[in-house]
Amino acid sequence: MNSHESAQMSFLDHLEELRWRLIKSIAAILIGGIVSFLFIEDILQFLIFPIKNLSNPPDLQVLKVQGMFMIKWGVALLGGVVLAVPVLTYQLAKFIGPGLHNNEKKVMFPLVFFSYFAFLIGIVFAFVVLIPYSLNFFTSMGMIEVKNNFSINYYFSFITMLLLGSGVIFELPIIVFILSSIGILTPAFMRHYRRHALVFILILSAFITPPDPISLVFMTIPLAILYEISIGVSWMVKRNK
Predict the structure, then answer these.
(1) Model-level pTM?
(2) What residues contact residue 37 under an 8 Å CB cut-off, 6+ apart?
(3) Cα–Cα distance between 212 and 9 in angstroms, integer?
(4) Do 188 and 199 form a contact (C-beta atoms < 8 A)?
(5) Hey, is 173 helix, strand or coil?
(6) Phi and psi of 144, rounded to 5°?
(7) 167 membership: H or E segment, kind and range
(8) CB atoms within 10 A of CB 127
């Protein structure tokens, strides 16, 4: 077998490993979704809680026959993604593990823990800061003659989008650690393109948050801070190398 064939077999082996990593990740999401569905009523009450403290709380309405059915299964699936984050991070770390040095492999398990911790911090930030301010802003735009009656489908889409978007964004230092470990990112590169990154952060925040300046500011500031933290993470990886 020549070197080209050997390299081709190695590439196919990587594809096979990637396939099994994806299968395990999808299975983890489905299992997490089933577990979430067992507690779906509590989860829905948790998601509805932010509107109870508003000065002008809206009324939620089901506008479709299959509305609550689709909501419960959709929220359960998203709950499965949240529960599966440690598994997803572990599968990603194991896939890139062969390309890491021994000292970098030692941080794989702490990496899984901190990735989930960062994801939960993002969810808490959205639930405590971003969602209340956004809901207060939108409900304050109403009129005395017009009642705030929200479609429950849109409300849950709005809430889950902010929760998951914030959770994923708070994974930035973990992603930077992984990319720096395999040599794709360097602290010099990130410092050089800091201004470009801030523009991208503004655009990303505008997509994730509702179309109001308050939500945009509340999402942009943590993102900018996370970017600076990520530069420090990349510097630590380079120093250890």
Answers:
(1) 0.70
(2) 72, 73, 76, 79
(3) 52
(4) no
(5) helix
(6) -60, -35
(7) helix 152-169
(8) 18
Nearest to 164 by CA among 19, 24, 29: 29
Closest to 129 measured CA to CA, from 155, 157, 75, 166: 166
How far is the C-alpha of 180 from the C-alpha of 187, rounded, in Å? 8
- Judged by phi (left if over 0) then psi (alpha if -120 to 50, else beta), residue 45 lies in alpha
User: CA–CA separation, 58 vs 123, rounded Å?
Assistant: 23
Proportion of the chain above pLDDT 90, given as a percent: 6
Residue 3 C-beta-side C-alpha neighbours within 13 Å: 0
Q: Which pLDDT band holds residue 31 (cuts at 50, 70, 90)?
A: very high
- Amino acid type, 120: L
Other C-beta atoms within 10 Å of 188: how many?
12
Contact in structure between 165 and 210 (CB atoms under 8 Å): no
Distance CA 88, CA 28 (A): 8
